[in-house]
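Bumping my old thread because nobody answered last time. Still need a sequence for this structure:
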């Protein structure tokens, strides 16, 4: 889901865009999910796939020792009625 959010907000690098232009277009047309693109990249999301702003956001959001911003937001939005984080439907 995060890679899809990155694509929606144009926070990907020029290199990623060159390599994935068809996938990006399919994603924007809702013909492919961010998860599918992530799988096509062998389950890797590396810093060179993001532009400077994307990297700054990712470091702030995922790499904070004091707060679990991502997991707190994710669980607050997607879990209810006894569901776990692993039951979120891919959209």
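Sorry it took so long. Here it is:
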């Amino acid at each position: 889901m995060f890679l899809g959010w990155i694509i929606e907000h144009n926070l990907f690098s020029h290199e990623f865009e060159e390599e994935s232009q068809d996938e990006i277009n399919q994603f924007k047309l809702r013909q492919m999910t961010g998860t599918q693109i992530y799988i096509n990249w062998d389950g890797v999301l590396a810093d060179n796939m993001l532009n400077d702003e994307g990297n700054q956001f990712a470091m702030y959001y995922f790499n904070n020792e004091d707060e679990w911003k991502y997991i707190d937001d994710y669980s607050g939005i997607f879990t209810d009625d006894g569901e776990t984080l692993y039951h979120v439907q891919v959209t």
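The radius of gyration is 14 Å. Let me know if any region looks off to you.
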